[in-house]
């Protein structure tokens, strides 16, 4: 009997930050700096994209707001949410780098990837059309920085994920 290796197969060839943004996003409230949420607003029949309408809700100070897509560009992939531009709740430092996640689902994906001893590319990796030298059409996992992919950083990154999970009040599965 040998040691069982945890396997991770990249599902992000079909899952992107846009898809993860279809779930509630954890942000910092601009009024009280508490934990607030950006939730999809399905009350108005509008465009069918999951991220086309958002509500800002802070349970601590009762601040609310709404956002709807009006053809403007959204910037995904930073430490602020792409809708209201508020700092993400799930951010921490690891080895001098910034680790961030949009929400619990994003945090779970990062944890599964980092914890895995065997990491496999998704079914469509390397076969996507229109791949350019700028990295367009790379999966979410393929775009992770090298420090996060390094086996040397594994324990530190997993400890950081645990700290972020604690900020959610969630001890794991």
Secondary-structure map:
Layout: E1 7-9, H1 17-20, E2 25-28, E3 35-40, E4 53-57, E5 64-68, E6 90-94, E7 97-101, H2 104-115, E8 118-120, H3 146-149, H4 154-167
Parallel strand pairs: 1-8
Antiparallel strand pairs: 2-3, 3-4, 4-5, 6-7
Helix pairs in contact: 2-4
The parts where pLDDT drops under 50 for at least 5 residues are 127-135
Name the beta content range.
15-25%
Number of strands: 8
Structural class: alpha+beta
Tally of helical runs: 4
Q: Taking Cα atoms only, what radius of gyration do you get, to the nearest Å?
A: 17 Å
The neighbouring-strand order within the major sheet is 2-3-4-5
Helix content class: 10-25%
Tell me the overall shape: globular
Q: Main sheet?
A: 4 strands, antiparallel
Write a structural description:
- With 173 residues, the chain is an alpha+beta fold.
- The protein is 20% helix and 21% strand.
- It is built from 4 helices and 8 strands.
- The strands form 3 sheets. It has a 4-stranded antiparallel sheet with strand order 2-3-4-5, with no helix packed on it.
- A hairpin with a 6-residue loop joins β2 and β3.
- α2 packs antiparallel against α4.
- The longest helix has 14 residues, at 154-167.
- The radius of gyration is 17 Å and the shape is globular.
- The model is unreliable at 127-135 (pLDDT under 50).
């Amino acid at each position: 009997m040998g040691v069982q290796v945890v396997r991770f197969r990249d599902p992000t060839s079909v899952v992107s930050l846009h898809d993860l943004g279809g779930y509630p996003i954890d942000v910092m409230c601009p009024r009280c700096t508490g934990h607030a949420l950006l939730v999809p607003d399905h009350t108005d029949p509008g465009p069918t994209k999951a991220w086309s309408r958002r509500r800002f809700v802070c349970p601590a100070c009762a601040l609310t707001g709404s956002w709807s897509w009006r053809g403007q560009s959204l910037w995904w992939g930073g430490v602020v949410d792409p809708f209201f531009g508020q700092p993400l709740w799930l951010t921490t430092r690891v080895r001098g780098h910034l680790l961030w996640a949009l929400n619990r689902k994003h945090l779970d994906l990062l944890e599964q990837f980092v914890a895995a001893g065997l990491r496999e590319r998704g079914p469509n990796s390397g076969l996507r059309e229109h791949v350019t030298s700028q990295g367009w059409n790379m999966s979410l996992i393929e775009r992770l920085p090298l420090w996060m992919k390094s086996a040397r950083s594994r324990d530190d990154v997993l400890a950081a994920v645990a700290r972020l999970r604690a900020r959610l009040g969630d001890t794991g599965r």
